[in-house]
Amino acid sequence: MTTKPHAVLVPFPAQGHLSPFLQLAKLLHSRGFHITYVNNEFNHNRLLQSKGEDFVNGLPDFKFVSFPDGLPPSDEDATQSLDGLSSAARKTMLGPFRELVAKLNASPDSPPVSCIIPDGFMCFGLKAAEELGILGVPFWTASACGFKSYFHYVELIEKGLEQEVLDAIKAINPNVYCIGPLNLLEARVPAHDTSRDLTVSLWKEDPRCFEWLDKQKPGSVVYVNYGSIAKMSEGQFREFAWGLATCGHPFIWVVRTDVMRANAAVLTEDYYKEIEDRALIVTWCQQEQVLAHEGVGLFFTHAGWNSTLETVIAGKPVICWPFIAEQSTNSRYLCKVWDVGVEASHHVTRGEIVELIKEMLESERGKERHNKALEWKEKAVAAAQVGGSSYKDFDRLIAEVFRH
Predict the structure, then answer these.
(1) Which UniProt keywords are given for this protein, alphabetically ordered (predicted)?
(2) Active site residues
(3) Rounded to a whole number, what is the distance in angstroms from the first to the last CA of the chain?
(4) What are phi and psi of 126, to 5 degrees?
(5) Contact 279/252 with Cβ under 8 angstroms?
(6) Nearest-angstrom CA–CA distance, 251 and 242
């Protein structure tokens, strides 16, 4: 009997990395792979809280496991320190991860590990693969332009379209497979595949969003979410809160529990009275489904790559407020190259927020950007269809790397 290939996936411990890794895992599972999805212990415990024990137990051939990261224990419902995680990835994670792979290889419940797929920021996974004589294939979860920027860190890309960036990367290293948007490829996972309905979220998702959206006029709602990491000063948070409250449009605002606790002085009873009946504040939601809802007309985002892809797939225009990493590059593409949005200034005020929302939802220029967003949606869908560039690259990845 042929042994299933066994892929061990190791995402960076942040929500924006966990989601695309799960999408890739499901795609590989649909192609006959046994999957082991590896979290650090902190996030494994958070998944227990948000998704329950049945989810974490996984499926017979799709397992969720954990290993210690060497960081101090914490009960906070928030992403760990990026500095601490980056340091641990360099200094303390290799040994425990190597031991985990050895246990997987010795287990009678799974085939031997045939490949390790670490996040681009979890390079110890490649070191472990090299030491154990196993195929190592890093997965970069952000944009091609972001990858290019990191690849040549001091040479920032200022000109060119995404395709030119991809061509430049492949000229340097031909073994780059551009398989996004994974959201659309994932939709092709067969209905009978047992992993199809798996989702991963470190926060409990609020189900009220869709009932509330169903009551709103099409294209009227501003959806606001700054991702799993971004933090604001109380002054910034106050400007956002009152800018949204006075913009004249209904809005859904995702405010993580850690951000909500830090800004209790802003989200007062008086504030909730001000926005009553025309706004919904939640701690987390199913973003892809919210963006796809006809009630949403505008996305106010930090321009993380997952959010960038999800808004393109939904065909929705944006206001960008980039925070870290390559988010400014993503914002530049969204606003300057693809022309589907505008960027807020770093020290944005409530008045600017009101002006930008009105420009995007009430002006002719806003309508033009909305039409552009629909054009980019069509291009994304075409890339993921049979014969499209992403579909073909995923087939090449399976044939040339994992089946080689």
Answers:
(1) Glycosyltransferase, Transferase
(2) 17, 119
(3) 19
(4) -70, -40
(5) yes
(6) 12
Q: Please tell me whether residue 344 adopts helix, strand or coil conformation.
A: coil
Element containing residue 396 per DSSP (H, E): helix 389-397
DSSP designation for 398: I
Q: Are 194 and 32 in contact (CB under 8 A)?
A: no
Q: Is 92 exposed, middle or buried (0-12, 13-18, 19+ CB in 10 A)?
A: middle
SS (H, E, C) 222-274: EEEECCCCCCCCHHHHHHHHHHHHCCCCCEEEECCHHHHHHCCCCCCHHHHHH
Q: How many CA atoms lie within 13 A of 334 on its CB side?
A: 35
What are the tens digits of pLDDT across the range 134-191? 999 999 998 887 777 766 654 544 444 456 666 766 665 667 888 888 889 888 888 8
- Tokens for 31, please give them: 């192609």
Q: Which two tokens stand for residue 97?
A: 């991860």
The torsion angles phi and psi of 161, rounded to 5 degrees, stand at -90, 165
Three-point CA angle 107, 109, 111, nearest 5°: 75
Token pair, residue 285, equals: 């939601």
Could you tell me which of 103, 101, 4 has the C-alpha nearest to residue 60? Answer: 4
Angstrom distance (rounded) from CA 308 to CA 87: 28
Q: State how far the alpha carbon of 106 is from the alpha carbons of 36, 111, 143, in Å.
A: 14, 9, 37
Q: What is the chain's alpha carbon radius of gyration, rounded to the nearest angstrom?
A: 21
Measured at the CA of 139, the angle between CA 290 and CA 141, to 5 degrees, comes to 30
Residue 404, SS3 per DSSP: coil
- The model's pTM is 0.83
Cα–Cα distance measured from residue 378 to residue 371, given in angstroms and rounded to the nearest whole number: 11
